[in-house]
Amino acid sequence: MAKRLGEKQSRYKSLVSKVFLDRYREGLTEVPFMRSDLESAAQDLGIELPKNIGDALYSIRYRTQMPDEVLATQPEGREWIIEGKGKASYAFSLVSINRIVPNEALVKIKIPDATPEIIGAYALSDEQALLAKVRYNRLIDIFLGITGYSLQNHLRTTVKKIGQIEIDEIYVGIDRQGRQYILPVQAKGGNDQLSAVQTKQDIHCCQQKFSNLICRPISTQFMADDVIAMFELTLDDDQVRIIDERHYKLVPANQISTDDLKSYWHRNNPL
Fold first, then answer.
1. Structural domains in the chain plus CATH codes
2. How many percent of the chain have pLDDT more than 70?
3. In angstroms, rounded to a whole number, what is the distance separating the alpha carbons of residues 38 and 52?
4. Given this model, what pLDDT does residue 54 score?
5. Which residue has the higher pLDDT, 182 or 54?
6. 197-238 pLDDT, tens digit each
C-alpha cells in the first residue's frame, strides 16, 4: 500500500512539474494553467492519467510539497502555491512563506474527554477522528467563548473567482450579545500541514455565502500524544495570520488534578 501511494505521489508530481515548467519563465510571479493541461502533460510524459485528475492538484496543494523542479525556482522567503482561479482554472502563485505551525512551547490545557469510545474505535481517518473530538468535546465553544453548532461536514461548494472548494466542517455560532458567526473549520492529522491557501478559500466562501455573519476561521491539528492544537485565523494584507492559539489535551476527568485547576485559575487571575 505504501509503495502504491508513493508511486501515485510521484506521478502527481511529474504531472504538476511538467505543467509548471512548460509555462514558467524567470521573473514570473503567477503561472496560470487549466485542469485540461494535466491531460496534455500526461500524454506527453506517457503517464497513465489519474481517474480523479482533481486529486493530483489536491494532493500537491494540501498534502505534499511541490515537486523539486518547482521548489528550485523559489526565491528566498517566498514559495509557490496553487490557487483556484475559477472553473477548472488555476495558477501557480509566488507568495511570502506563510505557515500555520503549532507552537511546541505552548502550555497544554487538560479537558475532560467526552468523546464516545465507539467513535474512536471506528473513525476511518485522523481528520475524521479530530473533527469528532472537536465536536463532542465542544472545543469550538471552549476555544472561542461562544456557543457553536455544527452545520455541515465536508461542504463542497463553488466560490466565485476560485472554483470548487471543500470545507472540512462548518459551524454557526452565537455569543451572549446575540452576534452570529460562521466558523469554517480546517482539520489535519499529524502528518498533514495546515494550509493557508485553504483558509483563504474558506474565508472568501463565507464572505460570499454568509455575508451577514461574522467569519472566524478555525484550524485544528493533532500534535504528538493526541494533543489538539487550535488556531483562530484572519486575513491581514492578504496573508493568513494567527489571532489565537491553544493546545488541548483530552483526558479522563480523574486525571485533572487540584493542582491543574489551581494553575488554570492563577494563569487567568495572576493577582
1. 2-96 (1.10.10), 108-268 (3.40.1350.10)
2. 94
3. 11
4. 76
5. 182
6. 889 999 999 999 999 999 999 999 999 888 999 999 999 887
Query: What one-character-per-residue DSSP string does the chain give?
Result: -HHHHHHHHHHHHHHHHHHHHHH--TT-SEEEEETHHHHHHHHHHTPPPPSSHHHHHHIIIIISPPPHHHHTTPPTTEEEEEEEEETTEEEEEEEE---B---TTSPEEEEE----HHHHHH--SHHHHHHHHHHHTTHHHHHHTSEEEEEEEEEEEEETTTEEEEEEEEEEEE-TT--EEEEEEEEE-TTS-B-HHHHHHHHHHHHHH-TTSEE--EEEEE-GGG-EEEEEEEEETTEEEEEEEEEEEEE-GGGS-HHHHHHHHHHH---
Cβ neighbourhood burial of 32 (10 Å; 0-12, 13-18, 19+): middle
